[in-house]
Amino acid sequence: MKLQSKLIASALCLGALPFAQAADFEDFGRVVRVTPQVEQINRPRQECRTEYVQVQQPAPQRSVGGAIIGGLIGGLAGNQVGGGTGRSVATAAGAIAGAVTGDRIDNANQPQGGVAEQAVKQCRTVDHWESRTSGYEVTYDYRGHTYTSQMSYDPGERVRLHVNLEPAQR
What we know:
This protein is an alpha+beta fold. The protein has three helices and six strands. The protein starts with a helix and ends in a 6-residue tail after the last strand.
């Protein structure tokens, strides 16, 4: 073998020496038990419904213009009838009759007050509890020793372990 080949082989062996004595490696442990860690979460929500209630409707404002004009016309018409105190009575009766007639004609198409139904929406907030798995408590066996660890997933029948060996300190 040439000297150059020997030097390269020696360099490679020396370079691989730390890897041959590495104290970190991966192995597997046997899973003994997996317990899901469940937490309760409240997510309140709105529940609404529509109810129909009866509401008293106020009577609309009546117009007085028809009564005033009717009273004036009735009074003028009554003033044309009779003489003396009879004329005064006829004027008053004509004014009253004209006012009543004018009011009825003016307010004939007005809606009347009464009871109507009105929709009322009523809402309330109710609790809504949900169960959520936040992780897993995993108990596993590795070389005759039992260990427990919290994990974010269920590892199945075996768990991959990162083993780190260190010399004991005195």
